[in-house]
Each structure stands twice: as C-alpha cells, then as structure tokens.
Amino acid sequence: MTGQPMPALARPVGGSTLLVAAVVVTVAALLGGDLAALSAAVGASVAPVFLGLTLLAARLGRDAGPQMLMALCVSTYLVKFVATALALALLQRQPWVEPTWVAASVLACAGAWLVGHVVATWRHRGLVEAPA
To answer: Over 90: is that where the pLDDT of 6 sits?
Structure first.
C-alpha cells in the first residue's frame, strides 16, 4: 500500500467528535453556566488533539517499515499520554475549570472518536485485501 493515498477517514471521525463536543458544551452551558461550558470546551479540545496526533504520526510514517511505524505510533502514544496527564493535572488546580465537565467532555469526545473510527472502518473495509 506504499505510495497510495489513505482513504478519507477524517469525515466520520471528526464529524462525530465535533457533534458530540457541541452537544456537551451546550449541555454544560445550560446546566452549569459559563464556567461549565468553558470547562467542557477545554475537555472537548483535549480528546481530538490526543487522538489526532496518532493519526498524524501514522500518516507521516506510512512509508516506513511496519516495525518503524509501530515504534513511531507507540512512542507518540507515550508522549501524548504523559503530556495529557500533566495538562489535566494542571487544569484541575485552576479556579476557572470544573473538573467534572472537563472529564465528561473528554470521555464523550473520545467515545465519539472511537465510534467514528468504527464507522469509517466499516465503510472502508473493502479497500483492504486479505492475504491469500
């Protein structure tokens, strides 16, 4: 598959995540006010950045061998995990952040991201040939 363009998977993944992020921020604004909406927006930005960096790393390393690509993705995941944990720990101590809304938003957006991946994989399953 080297040299061939990757299928367009971003639409179902990004679309579902943006829709859920908008719903969570709106619900937070209605139930908790401006502070809750801001916190939900912060959480909604964390999940796509965290998950999208792996897609970017895979895209950049797609012409590398399988071992190099796996090493790139695993190291990217480790760096993202540590950076996200530090960011969330720092955000938790801020007076302008409600941790409950940040956590709810991160979980909802990560779930939407995963559902979007399942939908995209299901739609593009015929593009990958099984070994004979």
So the answer is: no
